[in-house]
Design a protein that fits this description.
2 copies of one chain form a homodimer. The first copy, chain A, is an alpha/beta fold. Helices cover 43% and strands 16% of the residues of chain A. Chain A has 3 domains: 8-47, no CATH class; 61-163 and 297-325, Rossmann fold; 166-295 and 328-334, Rossmann fold (3-Layer(aba) Sandwich). In chain A, helix 1 crosses helix 3 (34-47). The radius of gyration of chain A is 26 Å and the shape is elongated. The structure holds a DNA duplex.
Chain lengths: 338, 338
DNA sequence: CTGTTAGCGCTTTCAA
DNA sequence: TTGAAAGCGCTAACAG
């Protein structure tokens, strides 16, 4: 069996050239005669030579690799975001490592610490924790590893952030429901302490305050990532009180709410309105069609990646705090009848 | 500003030890005195030393990295599969690179060729092309880079494959519809030449044959990844013929079919039955609830990853052709009335 | 335009 | 149990 990899030395030998000349053939400078370059490239192909990237990374301390760290992946929002990131990375000739934390803060810490060694040139992250101690992230600075947040951010860090207008979109959604006569609203949230949960909740609260809704009619319902747990919370709520409308801060909770309403024979939108943050492409096919606050997920990823590559190219990003607009799409689940 | 990374040399110097001793402290062998090891580890922490992985990769030709290559990512099936793969990789202490081809065969070739240099120790792939010329894949063998296919495979290669029972599940689905009296069936497919499209189509055809359906009543409809194109194909079909049931070979086509039926006021399941391969977790919330053939997506990823890691550990996989069962879940979209 | 040479940071014999 | 030394494959400064 032939050798697994041939080295630059062997290629040089086969061509009766020095390794440096051969090396030059693989870079885009004009410090080599075109004919020589051609010769080398041909021979390389013939012999199946590929530069060993680990040797070259070692020399240059450049890995042409970035990392994406996020709470979950199997989900419309995150998979779209990663798609956007990966595309930009490919365009820049970079490779993309992904890491899923399963929403576990400790895993996030572990993963970041595993990147201190210079495996990647930069990191794009959606945060998994509320976390107060962000030293493990700030330590990246001393290693010159830039980081860009998207969607779920740590507000107390000064890394660039790409988010959506969480406060405004939720305010608008609630405002709309209240304008149309809803008197009791419930806001379903998974974690009030994470950036987006908090911003959305504030938007909700402020809209309710604007309409002078008694606090008891503006309910914040703490749910979780567990479907059954959230469902039973919601079921209990709907059984004990008449709620006019629900705003779900994440898609998963809208699904739980739908399912509860279906089982309990509560009619959407007749008995209750429902709107949710969601990137479902088939919201219009649900029963009833779901009103959504749709984040530009892929674009969020693209923007975050572009900022990161700007930094890697040595450019200061013009805007370290990009806020993209979400689309509120009213469908039948928030229809009013007069 | 302090140095970005400190090297083993500097750490050794600080401890008045040799680099080889320091190096030993970071491996799990008993060729170093426990006390010395402890001392080194402590000092390393204090000084923020992390072994440079590129130097160590170079020495060992081991990158502890695998690649996942797939046609798309923003999709329930693939994001679940990747989730499974990434989890197994993390458990094995490996890193996961992802590459999305956008269903472009040429991109797949490019990506694979970019991995000839040894960047990864192994590859897990769902194929993007029908492709006849798979030399670029077989070339991985000479580089000792193992590959495992999942879902979309190249049948003419002898790499391990993890797939689902595409033929059987589609046969069963068609059989069920025919048993219940459907006389004209349409099978929506994107590419008859890719492994899964083909296997599913064969299952469909054989079921129709079993029921002696005239060929003209067992329609194969060529669709595409483009929503509008597929929709208009389906619309045309439904306008020109009375179809009793549709089997969609991928989720995307079911969505198109739903939308067409909605727009054309064709009632599911009264006017037409619909069943689709799909990993939608909310199939039961659609209008009407969608009958699905659900592949164990995450498990597919886990199995493929486990086979790859077996190979990397030097074990011959016991089964080079794993076939997992899909779940056929009948919901309202295939309900019959008597 | 090409070659010589040193060295990136680490690991692993081999010798002590 | 530790250290000395060679070398993984590549690149870049320098000399020619």
């Amino acid at each position: 069996m032939s050798k697994q990899f041939i080295s630059i030395k062997e290629l040089a030998l086969a061509l009766n050239l020095s390794t440096s000349t051969v090396s030059r053939a693989f870079r885009n400078k004009d410090d080599i005669h075109p004919d020589t370059k051609k010769l080398i490239l041909e021979k390389a192909k013939e012999l199946g030579y590929y530069p060993n990237i680990y040797a070259s990374n070692l020399r240059n301390s450049k890995s042409r690799t970035i990392a994406v760290i996020m709470p979950e992946l199997a989900n419309n929002f995150f998979s779209l975001a990663v798609k956007g990131i990966e595309r930009v990375a490919q365009l820049n000739g970079y490779h993309t490592l992904i890491y899923v934390t399963d929403s576990l803060y400790e895993k996030e810490v572990e993963i970041i610490e595993d990147l201190y060694n210079g495996r990647v040139e930069g990191i794009i992250m959606s945060a998994s924790g509320e976390g107060n101690d962000h030293r493990y992230i700030n330590k990246l600075k001393s290693k010159n590893i830039p980081l860009v947040f998207f969607d779920r951010v740590y507000d107390d860090t000064d890394y660039p952030k790409v988010t959506t207008d969480d406060y405004e979109s939720c305010f608008k959604a609630a405002d709309y429901l209240l304008d149309n006569g809803c008197k009791t609203l419930a806001f379903l949230v998974i974690d009030k302490n994470v950036s987006i949960g908090n911003a959305r909740m504030k938007g909700f609260e402020d809209a309710c305050a604007k309409h002078n809704l008694p606090e008891d009619n503006a309910l914040i319902i703490d749910c979780s990532n567990d479907f059954d747990e959230s469902s039973s919370r919601i079921r209990q709520l709907l059984k004990t009180r008449k709620i006019d409308a629900i705003i779900a801060s994440v898609e998963r909770l809208a699904v739980a709410a739908y399912t509860v309403c279906l089982n309990e024979n509560i009619k959407i939108p007749e008995d209750i309105k429902l709107i949710s943050y969601s990137n479902l492409s088939i919201a219009h096919l649900l029963n009833p069609p779901l009103s959504t606050i749709a984040q530009p997920a892929e674009n969020l990823g693209v923007n975050a990646a572009e900022i990161l590559f700007d930094i890697l190219k040595g450019l200061e990003p013009t805007n370290k705090n990009v806020i993209l607009k979400s689309d509120i799409i009213q469908r039948k689940s928030t229809q009013f009848f007069r």
